[in-house]
Amino acid sequence: MLSKLLVFKPSYPVRIFAGLFSILIALGVCAAAGISDIAADTLKERDDQFNGRLIEAGANNYIQQCSRCHGVQGKGVDGQGPAISSLNFLGGPKFVNGKAEQDASGNVINFPSQRLKDLGYGGTIEQYVASVTAAGMPVKSSAIWGAPHPVFSNLYGGPLRPDQVDNVTRFVINWKKQPFTVGVIDSLKPGSESGPAPTPAPLTPAQEAGKAVYLGAAGCTACHAVKGVGNQGGTGPALSKIYADAKTIITSLEYKAAGGKATTPEDYIKESILVPNQYIYPDCPQGPCAAGVMPQTFATTIKADDLANLVQFLSSLGR
C-alpha cells in the first residue's frame, strides 16, 4: 500500500486544480490579513512608525550638519542662520499657552508659510526645504547672515545622500505640528534691507587690536559667531550681543549660585575667558552648553595686553 502511494502520479487536470486551489487559499489568507490590518488601522500605525524612524535619522543628520547655523531647536542663531522651526517659516497651527488657535467653529487654524509668500515661491514648504537643503543657495539670502547656505546633497558635491536629505526634510517639517512663535530669529522680508544701513560706531585702536586677537591665533572663531566678523563657528554661544547678555547674567541667581564674582559686563567677559567653567552659558547652537569644551589655558596662552584688548572688543558687542 505504501509503495503504491509513493509511486502515485495524479493526472494533469488534478495537478492543475490542486495548484490553483493552493494559490486561492494563499491569496485568501493574505486578503484576510490585509483586511484585518485595515480594520485595526495597523497599516497607518506601521507607516507612522516607519516615518518616525526616518525623522529620527533626519534629526541626527540635522544636528551634525544644520544646527550650527539654525540651532538645535531650529530657532535660528544670531548672525549664522534664520529660524526654520517658526510659524513664519513653516506655517501650521499657532499655539498660545499650549493651545492651538481655533476658528469660530472650533477648527484648528492652519496658517500658511509667510516666508514662501514673501519670496513668491510657488511650491510647498516641503519642496522648498528639500531643494535648499540639497542644492544650497549661491548667494546669501540676507546681509545679516554670515555665509550663503551650503550644498548638502552629494549629487551637488555635499556630504549627504539623497535619502538623508529627504530625512532632514522630514525632521524639519515635523516642527510644523507645533511651530515656535517666540524666541525665534526670522528672516527679514525681501527688500527690507535695500535702504542704507546705519553706520556702525568705529572701533577704538584697542578694540581693533582685540578684534585681531579674536580673528587670530586665539581660535575664538572656531566655536563662536560674531555677526559680520570673519569665519564663524557655531558650537559655542554667539557673541554678537555678549555685552547685553553679560549685564543680564551677572544679576541672575544662576550666576551667583555658580560662584561668579563679576560685577560688570567687562569683568564677566574676562572671567568667561580665563575661567570658562565658572559659569556655563545655558544655550549653544547644538544644544545645552557643556563644561570643559572651552580651553582652560587662556590665562597662560594669551598675553596680558592681548587679553585686555580682546575684552575691549567683545565689550563693544551688543551695547
What is the topology?
Blueprint: H1 2-6, H2 12-39, H3 42-65, H4 67-70, H5 87-90, E1 92-93, E2 95-96, E3 99-100, E4 110-111, H6 114-119, H7 125-135, H8 162-174, H9 205-215, H10 242-249, H11 253-257, H12 265-274, E5 283-284, E6 287-288, H13 298-301, H14 304-315
Antiparallel strand pairs: 1-4, 2-3, 5-6
Helix pairs in contact: 3-8, 7-8, 9-14, 10-12, 12-14
Question: In a few lines, what is going on in this structure?
Answer:
The chain is mainly alpha-helical and 319 residues long. The protein has helices spanning 2-6, 12-39, 42-65, 67-70, 87-90, 114-119, 125-135, 162-174, 205-215, 242-249, 253-257, 265-274, 298-301, 304-315; strands at 92-93, 95-96, 99-100, 110-111, 283-284, 287-288.
Number of discrete helical segments: 14
Q: Enumerate the strands of the largest sheet in spatial order, edge to edge or round the barrel.
A: 1-4
Strand content: under 5%
Q: Main beta sheet, described?
A: 2 strands, antiparallel
Provide structural commentary.
With 319 residues, the chain is mainly α. It is 45% helix and 4% strand. The chain contains 14 helices and 6 strands. The chain has helices at 2-6, 12-39, 42-65, 67-70, 87-90, 114-119, 125-135, 162-174, 205-215, 242-249, 253-257, 265-274, 298-301, 304-315; strands at residues 92-93, 95-96, 99-100, 110-111, 283-284, 287-288. Strands 1-4 form a two-stranded antiparallel ribbon. Strands 2-3 form a two-stranded antiparallel sheet. It has a two-stranded antiparallel ribbon with strand order 5-6. A hairpin with a 2-residue loop joins strand 2 (95-96) and strand 3. The longest helix is centred in the N-terminal third of the chain and has 28 residues, at 12-39. The protein starts with a helix and ends with a helix.
